[in-house]
Amino acid sequence: MKLNERSLAFYATCDSPADNAGFLYKRGERHTAYHRRWFVLKGNMLFYFEERESREPVGVIVLEGCTVELCDSAEEFTFAIRFGGAKSRTYVLAAESQAAMESWVKSLSRASFDYLRLVVRELEKQLEEMRGGPAGGRGGCWQPPGSWKPKPSGPERSPERLPALPAILPKENGCAVWNNVPGVDRSPDTSGCGGHDGEGNPRPPPLPPRRRASSSEAGSAGAAAAESPSIFCRLHERYGQEVARLRQDWLDRRRGPQ
Predict the structure, then answer these.
(1) pTM for the whole thing?
(2) What three-state secondary structure class fits 81?
(3) Model confidence over 136-146: pLDDT tens digits?
């Protein structure tokens, strides 16, 4: 990956969220005077500007292979970014308060990919220990998630054996035969209406028997049938007279006064 000034300036000023931002005092490389700069931390790159509204950064510090530590200086709340090597530069920065210094030291210490790599390794180790259960780290075998089953707290009891039942009840001509269970004796079919005929063709299911009315119900039904014509005649005659009267009134109003 190639980087140039334009790409770095665009990344420093784009709308991507910053891990930390604020004013810090930076000590010069040649002169020991401190200059107030606006710092922006994005990933493992620490950009610093002359002003907060500046469009381009003055410089950038790549936070790889470095350590962040507190240092003794005439200024308060100072810390340093040190790189390994004899000719490597050490950046001395000063915050405006104790809280700001602690925030910057924490965020800068976690910005490098080396730190992220250590965090990933630690999380993978913890995940392996959780998957291995209590035996993890002591030679226990790894079990896939979901394979663990809780053991019953009470005494173990052998499950009672129940008679095996068919998953799907057998059917004859689309109707379930409830007594067609293995091991249950069936009464011989003497009606000749169920099962199969002599040629092996399925027979239709037997029709349910018709319900026979009792003598009292038959008497009441006969009485109601005998009374129904007389009641209908009386109602027909009554409403017929009313209709005839209304029709005669309508004809009289239509003719008008004579």
Answers:
(1) 0.49
(2) strand
(3) 444 444 444 44
Helix (H, G, I), strand (E, B) or coil at 132: helix
Of 104, 83, 85, 88, which Cα lies nearest the Cα of 37?
A: 104
Give the separation between CA 83 and CA 65, rounded to whole angstroms: 6
- % of the chain with per-residue pLDDT over 90: 34
Residue 118 exposure: Cα atoms within 13 Å on the Cβ side? 6
Predicted local confidence at residue 137, as pLDDT: 47
Joined tokens for residue 209:
């028997």
Q: How far is CA 164 from CA 169, 176, 177, 179, in A?
A: 12, 18, 17, 14
Distance CA(68)–CA(89), nearest Å, equals 13
Residue from 3, 37, 5 nearest 21 by CA: 37
Burial of 77 (0-12, 13-18, 19+ CB in 10 A): buried
* β-pair type (45-49, 34-42): antiparallel
Give the pLDDT band of residue 109 (cuts 50, 70, 90).
very high
Dihedral sign, CA of 149, 152, 156, 160? negative
Q: What are 158's two structure tokens? A: 């052998």
Q: Give which of 90, 64, 68, 66 is closest to 79, Cα–Cα.
A: 68
Distance of alpha carbon 127 from alpha carbon 88, whole angstroms: 38
DSSP letter assigned to residue 212: P
